[in-house]
Amino acid sequence: MDEYNAQQEQDQVPLLEVRHLGKYYEDGYHAVKDVSFSLPSGKLVGLIGHNGCGKTTMMKCINKMHDFQVGDILIDGESVKGKTTSEIAKKVANVPAELRNSFGLTVYETVMLGRYPHLKNLWWETDEDETIVMETMKKFGVHHLMNKQLNMLSSGEMQRVLIAKAYVQEPRLMLVDEPTSHLDMKYKLNVMEYLRAMVKKDMTILVAEHDISLMARYCDLCIIMKKGELVAIGDPKKIITEELIQDVYEVSSSVGLDRDGELYILPKKYMGSDEFFE
What we know:
This protein is an alpha/beta fold. Helix content is 32%, strand content 27%.
């Protein structure tokens, strides 16, 4: 981890830099504890850990949906402190795990919402906005659904719409929270292929996920968290080991490379204590 961050310091200003981040709640729960790392542009990055490890909380601190008490977060070398959510939205796009309230919106209306940080007029979109939205819906295979309401979509269609909305925002950093949690195998791979193809030289995508095998296959870098702390960051083929899996998940596993050279993780047995079976 230290070696990775040292290399970042030799390069240009990181796209994202998290400095000694601390986030806690009024009840005393410490969700994120002294987390520091930096990310360059042009990477697909997996944020991995068990439920409650601080993944989603940290992403909400990055896009200022949550305030934080300790440390700082910098986008392109500028602190998010003092910036409004609309200012942050010009550089950071958010793809939630699910959209709880669709308010009767159609697919077209939802994707167009992603253009709002760039609108030159207060009440209407330009021809440029219209073109970007229409081309993006075609790119993500949802153009034929443009007049359909969100509550009529399948889980796979919904994920593509939410990603398209974030894409038209033209962000430098995209935060994607558990994009495959409700999808079957086909659509898990489909969504990850879209995310992989979206990474640009000037944009990084940070994906919070539970499926460590999926992240290991598609991501350039992985960030591993446990109980609000950073455990490891780097190339998944180098940092994901059987020892790390047991430490983070309390699970014994087999970790290796398949015949295509892809990393696989095969869980075997839960190694923690469970009063139910005692």
